[in-house]
Amino acid sequence: MFGDISVEEFLRDYWQKKPLLIRNAFPNFQSPITQDELAGLACETDTARIVIEQGGAHPWEVRHGAFDDDDFSNLPATHWTLLVNDTDQHLPELKAVMEPFRFIPDWRIDDLMISFAVEGGSVGPHVDAYDVFLLQAQGQRRWQITTQPAHPDNFLPDLELRIMRDFQAEQEWIVEPGDLLYLPPNVPHYGVALNECMTYSIGFRAPSQADMLEKLLEDSLEDARLQQRFADPERIPQANPGELTTVDMDRLIDFVVDALPQDEQSLQLWLGKYLTIPKGNTQPIEAEPVSRSEFSRLVRHKKRFEKSLDTRILYFLSASNLHLFANGNHYLIDTQHLQFIEYLCQTSVLLHKDYAHFLTQEVSFDTLHELLSIGVFSVRK
């Protein structure tokens, strides 16, 4: 994928450090989805947007999906872009596009966004706070980048998009289908369609400390011990009622600090849950209950099991235990079953010839049965 550059060299020299353009990274690339099919998908999801630079209600107008046919028939001839996030959660063929990028762990990968643009279509010069691979799927696009800092006062006011007011290009490329541009976080870039074109954006998760702390505190509120109230049974008379004494200050600080997780394992288990909760814009998985006997029958008939497209699954090792997390659910498993769990995490479609020997062990059998029952896997038709 990186030409003469190995994955190890890419991670050492480019990842989160500097941009890299790889010509013909995906030779003879054919988009699994047409522009009409992308428009159809935009009519089914609220993760779609249309950005109209010229010819809309105002410059850089943003319209939000889900759309209908009339929304597309009334667009100007040029200078608009359709963007659809989370397309990998809709089609297995699109999920497969992300497979070559799994040298970065799954928990770090966010989504596949696909954009279709007519001539002149763009979302303006901007910065992203996360790493992104930009794969040209159809047509031609001109990319420009710069090292100039994106100061807060260098953005156009009163717009939904954060578009840089002043952008001085330092490097420029015209990309063709199969070309791949990697951009680290916070690199100002500007892409403009030279003709009808489609671009795949493989984006990566980069939660802020504020995001993680907010969710940690939110989840901690479910802990029954946090219902206790501040108490001071050893209080003594105070000379000035307006003073916050050192003793009271220390008591209050301890009271707040004690509310936070007090051991590393608690934080580890919280992280496993946090990183595998499905995205909020997806419909909850509705799995049909599968009895143990029915699951045995499926295995005997050598059925294939397919990982659901919106599944988030990971594991980590701690002492003699293996902690498996799938869509926010936690399973404690002995490390002797590590090879089976690795197989589950790595594989999109489970084939009988690969999984059968694992299922001779009851723990492995029960684990896959449970994951099938909650919709992490389903029977492939």
TrEMBL record:
Pfam families named among the record's database cross-references: JmjC_2, WHD_ROXA
Alphabetized UniProt keyword annotations: Dioxygenase, Iron, Metal-binding, Oxidoreductase, Ribonucleoprotein, Ribosomal protein
The keyword Ribonucleoprotein belongs to this UniProt entry's keyword annotation: yes
Domain JmjC: 93-221
Molecular functions per Gene Ontology: 2-oxoglutarate-dependent dioxygenase activity; metal ion binding
InterPro entries membership: JmjC_dom, NO66-like, ROXA-like_wH
Residues in coiled coil: none
PROSITE patterns linked: JMJC
Presence of the UniProt keyword Disulfide bond in the record: no
Needed cofactors: Fe(2+)
A Gene Ontology cellular-component term: ribosome
Protein's name according to its UniProt entry: 50S ribosomal protein L16 3-hydroxylase
Organism: Thiothrix caldifontis
